[in-house]
From TrEMBL, chain B:
Keyword Membrane belongs to the record: yes
Annotated protein name in UniProt: Uncharacterized protein
Transmembrane segments: 33-51
The entry's keywords: Membrane, Transmembrane, Transmembrane helix
Amino acid sequence: MMTMMKGKETINNMQMVFLFFGYLIGSVLIIIPGPLVTMAKNAAWISILIAMAIGILLLQVIIFLQRKHAGLTFIGYSRKLVGYWPTVAIAGLMLTMAFHMAAGIFLDVAGFMNSMMMPETPSYVFMGLMYIVAALLLRSGIEAIARIFSILVIIMLLFWLVVLVLLIPSYHPEFLRPIFPDGYKPLLLGTYLSFGIPFGEVILFALVLPYAGIKQLKGLNKALVWTMIGCGVVLMLSTVCTIMALGPFAAEKKYSLFTLAQLVEIGDIIERIESISGMTMILGSLMKGTVTLFAIQTLIAEVFDIKDSRMLTNPICLLAMLLAMTLPATMQEWEEMVFVVHPLWVGVVYMIPVLLLAAVTLLKGWLKAPGQQRE
Amino acid sequence: MIEKLLVLMTICSIALLTDLRKLMEMTSRSKLVYAGIMLLVLYASIDYLLVQELPDLHTLVDLVLIAPARAIVQALKG
């Protein structure tokens, strides 16, 4: 049985834009600039640019698939193209990465809160609260999620902008040079990392795209491309400002936006505003985590043909929380998993299956075309 | 151990008690999928309680992806 859109919930282009922005940028804003500068040095912003270009290409692929199979969900057109069991295999592969993401996003919040703000509080307190809020959002449905994200994205960007603007007196543009102190290889390494987090993750958004109306797709393509460019610009600005403010120490700081916020000191009035970056981290993670959990829920419900996917919200959130508490044995192992393995994992389980589906769609179109001409 | 047990009991009861009424109304297929996920929850709970490092998602990834990923990063580091 083909999985069609149930036609119950649809969201408009603007809501989709906020959803996409929240999913893509999420916690990345705080977590990525530090490691990215470690890997790519001063060329970090160029590596974001290259990874963003790859991300836009992948976005075109999932929108192409959605357009060609209008009215069907991701699992629906996958079944139509390659059959049931290959679709189950694709979904299974995607779920490995999606669960790793759903666990990791909230684990990073706990790690951040423990190391920067509240070291005495057990990590399960942060994770538990985040999963409860995410579960409540998931139970409210995609429409409610999209509406609340419109507000959260604006608040998050406002917090981010406040930190970067207040730091203007501390910037040293000369720190940005030389761009390639160690040749081009660090640039490629940075591209590898920023492809994995966040631009390669765009593929999972294919599960949310069917919630846009069929007629919206043309306008949506343009809107999502601009949103991705916006994400790239925000990430590049964060990275460039980190380098300009911290110079050679930028690579040593794990949560660079937090460190930047600590530097803000305008007279005796505005100082110690790092809690703002803590809020940015929590909001961003909540958005990214919620969309990821929504994708997991949709994927499982569609593979098993369950009508009300919200029935699965609680067990999925419970499983993701337990995975967050058990997956990494040590933080070192976790960091290797995120900064070394994650990009390859994204490539193997997200990118390859979707490219395969696009290739099959094109092939079927070409095979069909001569027949249609004869008719 | 007691702290972990309490954490586990709290999160499981929050998840299950709020689903209790819905569980009665679910179709058998939904119940089966729900039970399947709960089995994975049980496995992860044992891992969490006993700190045994039982085989998990990362064990699988370690087997398949870690070597090529390290090779890529090493090659790019020069």
